[in-house]
Amino acid sequence: MENSTNGSLAVVTGASSGIGLELAKQFAQHGFDLFIVADSAKITEAENILKSYNVSVSAAQVDLAKPAGVEELYGLIRRTGRPIDAIALNAGVGAGGDFVRETLLDADMNVIDLNVRSTVHLAKLVLKDMVQRGSGRVLFTSSIAATMPGTLNAVYNASKAFVQSFAQAIRNELKDTGVTITALMPGATETNFFHRAGMDDTKIGSSEKDDPADVAKTGFEALMAGEDHVVAGSFKNKVQSTMAHVLPDTLNAEMHRKQAEPRSDQR
Asked: What's this model's pTM, rounded to 2 decimal places?
């Protein structure tokens, strides 16, 4: 791809590792300066990695699950004095387990606060600026989980269904503004997600997963092409996403259970 983005600024949330870090690398490789953020101190390590691409990199450790964190991030970006040309709203978390009998309410609410509330909050702030300027690109990290009921990961799948619907709705609302919205829909990817969600001892958690670098490359290319959404990763993900729209939710929910239940509970 021809590099025509020198001087542009991209923001990536959840950028300390996994898909977020790989998305930041994609932006850097194509000449974007970066503002990266995560709730982990590892964001400093990511900053050092990304500086090797000879672009300007700013980093902030901010908890976006809190409204004050979103406002803090937006304030830090505004203080750069530069417009946001592209943003990857990638930060997210899961909480695996039986909703009623296993997961903690605080963990479930944290999923909603980070995956849903902070996504809406930051999008509201950033998109107003983009629309006023008449240009900008937004990438939402959704998931193929958005297409099916998430038995034993109920709140996470529901949160991604929200993100997917939200992204497609505002894409249509903004179709004549010069701002594009793209939803990235990965499947199981080799990141810290399953460990953080307490899903190491599950079929999906212990299975072979997609390379986050490949997922990020697919997402970046879809963003730059202005596509509405893209299913990233293995061909299996595309099949699974397609079948989820055809099969009844009761069957999708049972199939998800087989993937997400602890191995000791599997039959």
From this structure: 0.89
194 or 187: which carries more pLDDT confidence?
187
Question: Which secondary structure element, helix H or strand E, spans residue 240, and what is its range?
Answer: helix 235-246
Q: DSSP strand E in the chain: where?
A: 9-13, 33-38, 57-61, 86-89, 136-141, 179-185, 229-231
Give residue 267's pLDDT. 42
Domain count, the chain: 1
Task: For residue range 105-133, list pLDDT tens digits in order.
Answer: 999 999 999 999 999 999 999 999 999 99
What confidence score (pLDDT) does residue 237 get?
74
**What is the Cα–Cα distance from 16 to 91, expressed in whole angstroms?**
10
197 has a pLDDT exceeding 90? no
Interaxial angle between packed helices 118-133 and 67-78, expressed in degrees from 0 to 180 and rounded to the nearest 10? 30
**218 within 8 A of 189, measured Cβ to Cβ:** no
Which two three-digit tokens encode residue 83?
A: 């417009």
Please give the Cα distance from 117 to 159 (Å, whole number).
10
CB crowding 180-203: b at 16 or more within 10 Å, else e = bbbbbbbbbbbbebbeebbbeebe
- Lateral strand order in the sheet of 229-231: 57-61, 33-38, 9-13, 86-89, 136-141, 179-185, 229-231
Q: Which two tokens stand for residue 188?
A: 């199981």
Domain enclosing residue 170, as ranges: 9-265
- Tell me what pLDDT residue 204 has: 63
Is residue 117 a part of any domain in this protein? yes
Query: Has residue 4 been placed in a domain?
Result: no
Domain assignment present for 1: no
